[in-house]
Design goal:
The chain has about 260 residues and is an alpha/beta fold. Helices cover about 45% and strands about 15% of the residues.
Length: about 260
């Protein structure tokens, strides 16, 4: 049996634009529904959503039904957590709050077996199809995508060294935390915030790596992807549901008034 190709990793390496969506509902049914939408990638969040390994497993299984590549964001840059997420079969991870090259190197090491890293070895788990992918130990790293999240002013300054770490496949800007660190808590439309992000994206491109981010507006997503960004997520399953529910109820209330 062959290891599944990570189409998202190879696409961003080739500079092909990848449209994503956030999965925040921790639901295998929501993941199954989104898997049929045709997004290039979907973020399964463990940092700001109450996902655990069991709920994550159900979502990863749901994404087997389509071509959307699930990207898992662990709660922290912790090799113990990463080991379990990889063994479940995740092939792409977004590491939160990476501040410098050392932390980026730690993230990469957690995804590599010795002697190239510190990932623990299991002979039979979902990632190697329970032992059926015979060369998994030798080839797994080729399909594992390591994305690191830039969320502070210091991290933006350190982009050249972070992007230069071997094994880092892309850098992702977190607008909410970066805005907070810049003194603009909750001001996601701040011109100063986006000036910093665009300058950071230029540095990412100069280092030869793809840049990504998350926005909640379609026009903003288009603007970024027509510019220098390679992978952008627009909205989440949770926010799409809330907006649709509020709009529908508002229309009915207005019709009854």
């Amino acid at each position: 049996m062959q290891l599944k190709s990570n189409t998202f990793k190879h696409a961003i390496a080739a500079g092909r634009k990848q449209v994503g969506v956030w999965n925040s509902l921790c639901s295998n049914i929501a993941a199954d529904a989104l898997a049929s939408s045709g997004y290039d990638w979907a973020l399964l969040d463990m940092e700001h959503s109450p996902n655990d390994l069991r709920t994550l497993l159900g979502q990863l299984q749901a994404y087997e039904n389509g071509d959307t590549v699930p990207v898992v964001r662990p709660v922290w840059n912790d090799p113990v957590i990463v080991k379990s997420v990889l063994d479940l079969g995740a092939q792409a991870l977004l590491f939160p709050m990476v501040q410098n090259a050392a932390e980026a190197e730690k993230a990469v090491a957690a995804t590599r077996y010795p002697p190239d890293g510190i990932r623990g070895v299991s002979a039979s788990q979902r990632a190697n199809r329970f032992g059926r992918v015979k060369d998994y130990l030798q080839t797994a790293h080729r399909e594992i995508c390591v994305l690191v999240q830039i969320e502070t002013v210091q991290a933006v300054k350190n982009i050249p060294e972070i992007a230069g770490v071997d094994g880092v496949d892309g850098l992702f800007f977190g607008p909410a935390d970066l805005a907070a660190d810049m003194g603009f808590l909750g001001q996601l439309a701040s011109d100063d915030l986006w000036s910093a992000i665009h300058a950071g994206a230029d540095a990412v491109q100069a280092a030869g790596k793809p840049a990504g981010t998350l926005v909640g507006d379609v026009q903003k997503a288009l603007e970024l992807m027509r510019g220098g960004f390679t992978f952008v997520a627009c909205g989440s399953d949770l926010n799409l549901m809330v907006k649709s529910a509020d709009a529908q109820l508002g229309e009915i209330r207005q019709g009854l008034s």
